[in-house]
C-alpha cells in the first residue's frame, strides 16, 4: 500500500516534506516511522521524540493507516 507522509521541522533536512512509502498492509503509524528510520538511521533520535498525526488528528503508534490517509510526522520544535 502506498502511504503519503508529510514531515516538518528538522525532519525536512533529511526527508522531502511530502513523500510516499510503499508498505505491506496492514500499515500502522509505527511501521511508517520504522521505515523512515531504516532509510535514514541518523534520524532515529528525532523520530523517537516525534509525535504523529493521521488526517490532522494526533494518533498513537498502533493506529492503522487506511489507503488515502496522510501520516504527519511532527518533531519537537524550538527557536524563537
UniProtKB/TrEMBL annotation:
Transmembrane intervals: none
Alphabetized Gene3D superfamilies for the sequence: 3.10.20.30
Name by which UniProt lists this protein: Molybdopterin synthase sulfur carrier subunit
The species this protein was found in: Leptospira yasudae
InterPro entries (UniProt xref): Beta-grasp_dom_sf, Mopterin_synth/thiamin_S_b, ThiS/MoaD-like
Amino acid at each position: 500500500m502506498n502511504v503519503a507522509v508529510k514531515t516538518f521541522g528538522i525532519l525536512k533536512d533529511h526527508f522531502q516534506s511530502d513523500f510516499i512509502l510503499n508498505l505491506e498492509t496492514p500499515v500502522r503509524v509505527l511501521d511508517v516511522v520504522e521505515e523512515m528510520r531504516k532509510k535514514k538511521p541518523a534520524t532515529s533520535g528525532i523520530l523517537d521524540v516525534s509525535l504523529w498525526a493521521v488526517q490532522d488528528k494526533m494518533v498513537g503508534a498502533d493506529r492503522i493507516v487506511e489507503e488515502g490517509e496522510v501520516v504527519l510526522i511532527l518533531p519537537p520544535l524550538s527557536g524563537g
